[in-house]
Design a protein that fits this description.
The complex is a heterodimer of chains A (about 220) and B (about 80). Chain A has about 220 residues and is α/β, with parallel strands linked by helices. Chain A is built from 5 helices and 11 strands; from the N terminus they run βαββαβββαββββααβ. An 8-stranded mixed beta sheet of chain A has the order 7-8-9-10-6-2-1-11, sandwiched between helices. In chain A, strands 4-3-5 form a 3-stranded mixed beta sheet. In chain A, a hairpin with a 2-residue loop joins strand 7 and strand 8. The radius of gyration of chain A is 16 Å and the shape is globular. By secondary structure, chain B is mainly beta. Helix content of chain B is about 0%, strand content about 55%. In chain B, the strands form 2 sheets. In chain B, strands 1-8-6-3 form a 4-stranded antiparallel beta sheet, with no helix packed on it. In chain B, a hairpin with a 3-residue loop joins strand 4 and strand 5. The chains are: A alpha/beta (about 220), B mainly beta (about 80). Chains A and B meet through helix 3 and strand 9 of A and strand 4 and strand 5 of B.
């Protein structure tokens, strides 16, 4: 690995899905041009996103109902099916040049799963993979969702970690097209979990998994 | 002729599905342009142009399942 490679951590806070998406596109172009990799951290107001392979039928309520409830719907160029973001879910968008590690989509997905498993372990939660399904599970429920995009071997999209959120929102969709029950770190622990603590731990786990020095930088939306 | 080929995407990934072409036959493309997007189960991957020129043929249309190494299109270099 290039010893000079350092990853910028940018915390965007609570940000509209489409603003974060625009930010990712800019960052991907920069990293393609040789800039430092970036780890974007954020939360989104309630939004349902449809991946390339997502059938509309996996949204279980009408558009009118969603509009009434203030839930946006966005079609995007990520792999995977339908998913939902909302405040209390930590969304992580790593913008990494995979050529520095391994040009392998499955390898990268497994790295992200391991980061999430390590993170959860730090909070005393035993989580695992389920063969053939991407994501991370605890108590037979899904706690972390993963879907990625890659352009010229630079990554975008990423990971949604249910920290402490309104899990009823997942009743609006069939998450990832699966009949999966969703859970959160707070539900698994039975106590409130601080987003700030999860972000800090995530950066440490990411640093260890990718052997990548991390520096905090001001967010550039 | 420069061929647009589905590259190796990783261990155990032999196939992908063409999601969409960003250009149509006859369009001019530049080296490294993302010209066609494919999807696997949890990832989208943009295949880029290996040469600048005219996209003369699209051999794998949207929705087609394609294999690693398969030719997706042809570019006549300029």
């Amino acid at each position: 690995m290039n010893t000079e490679m350092i990853c910028r951590v940018e915390d965007l806070g609570l940000v509209d899905y489409e603003d974060a998406w625009a930010c990712q596109k800019v960052q991907v172009d920069r990293v393609r041009a040789g800039a430092r990799p970036v780890l974007l951290l954020c939360e989104h107001p309630a939004v349902i996103t449809l991946g390339r392979l997502a059938p509309e039928k996996n949204i279980l309520v009408s558009r009118e109902t969603l509009e009434h409830d203030g839930v946006q719907v966005v079609s995007i160029d990520r792999g995977g099916d339908v998913t939902l973001h909302a405040p209390g879910q930590l969304v992580v968008y790593p913008i990494l040049p995979l050529a520095h590690w391994k040009k392998d989509l499955h390898w990268y997905l497994a790295q992200l799963e391991q980061v999430a498993i390590d993170l959860l372990k730090s909070f005393g939660i035993v989580a695992n993979r389920i063969s053939g399904k991407t994501g991370v599970w605890a108590d037979s429920c899904k706690v972390v969702s993963i879907g990625i995009g890659v352009r010229q071997w630079v990554t975008y999209h990423g990971v949604g970690i249910n920290v402490d959120m309104d899990l009823k929102l997942f009743d609006l969709i069939k998450p990832c097209g699966l009949d999966a029950r969703m859970t959160s770190m707070a539900r698994l622990k039975g106590v409130a979990v601080e987003m700030r603590d999860v972000k800090e731990c995530l950066v440490k786990c990411f640093h260890r998994q990718f052997n990548l020095p991390m520096i905090y930088a001001s967010a550039q939306l | 002729m420069s061929f647009v080929i589905l590259p190796e995407l990783g261990e155990g990934i032999e196939k992908a599905t063409v999601a969409c072409w960003h250009f149509k036959e006859g369009d001019l493309v530049s080296l490294d342009d993302d010209i066609v997007e494919v999807v696997t189960d949890k990832a989208t991957f943009s295949v880029s142009a290996g040469a600048s020129g005219t996209l003369t043929k699209i051999l794998a249309q949207d929705g087609r399942e394609v294999s690693v190494g398969e030719t997706l299109g042809e570019i006549e270099p300029q």
